[in-house]
Amino acid sequence: MSRTVIASDHAPKAIGPYSQAVQVGNTIYTSGQIPLDPATGALIAGDITEQTHRVFENLRAVIEAGGASFADVARVGIYLTDLSNFAAVNAVMTEYFQEPYPARSTIGVASLPRGAQVEIDLVLVRG
């Protein structure tokens, strides 16, 4: 099965040897996004709510470049440096997803690239 790279100029460029997303068959796998400003590549200032919104907007740009939407998301992976932010991230997530909600895991980590508080990746299945 062939792989197709998905990229968007409206999301931060990869900061390592990876693609923003890859489609294999009808499944799209996004790389983790942290709250980088796509225009500057810098980590945005702000609390966990603002950072989580930026992450989802970065992800939106990538998945829309692949012809998909949040309605196609089957799984969400969330990585937090402070699990006390769990409720705030949940609140933001409800602005991007409707029932039936995708499957999800939330994992506490010691640190994330560039000092981010949150990183999120997605798996989407189309049609």
Could you name the key traits of this structure?
127 residues; alpha+beta; 60s Ribosomal Protein L30, Chain: A; six-stranded mixed β-sheet; 6 strands; 20% helix; globular
- Share of helix, binned: 10-25%
Q: Quick one: overall form?
A: globular
Number of distinct beta strands: 6
User: Topology as H/E string?
Assistant: EEEHEHEE
CATH-assigned fold name = 60s Ribosomal Protein L30, Chain: A
Q: Flag low-confidence runs.
A: none
Q: Which CATH class is shown?
A: Alpha Beta
Number of domains: 1
Distance between the termini: 17 Å
Q: Output the strand order for the largest sheet.
A: 1-2-3-6-4-5
Strand content: 25-35%
The number of helical segments is 2
CATH architecture: 2-Layer Sandwich
Q: CATH superfamily name?
A: RutC-like
Reported for the largest beta sheet, the result is: 6 strands, mixed
- Which structural category fits the helices and strands? alpha+beta
Provide the residue-averaged pLDDT.
Answer: 96
Layout of secondary structure:
Blueprint: E1 3-6, E2 21-24, E3 27-30, H1 48-65, E4 73-80, H2 86-93, E5 103-108, E6 118-125
Parallel strand pairs: 4-5
Antiparallel strand pairs: 1-2, 2-3, 3-6, 4-6
Helix pairs in contact: 1-2
Can you characterise this structure?
The chain is an alpha+beta fold and 127 residues long. The protein has one domain (3-125): 60s Ribosomal Protein L30, Chain: A, CATH 3.30.1330. 20% of the residues lie in helices and 27% in strands. The protein contains 2 helices and 6 strands. It has helices at residues 48-65, 86-93; strands at 3-6, 21-24, 27-30, 73-80, 103-108, 118-125. Strands 1-2-3-6-4-5 form a 6-stranded mixed sheet, covered by helices on one side. Strand 2 and strand 3 (27-30) form a beta hairpin. Helix 1 crosses helix 2. The radius of gyration is 14 Å and the shape is globular.
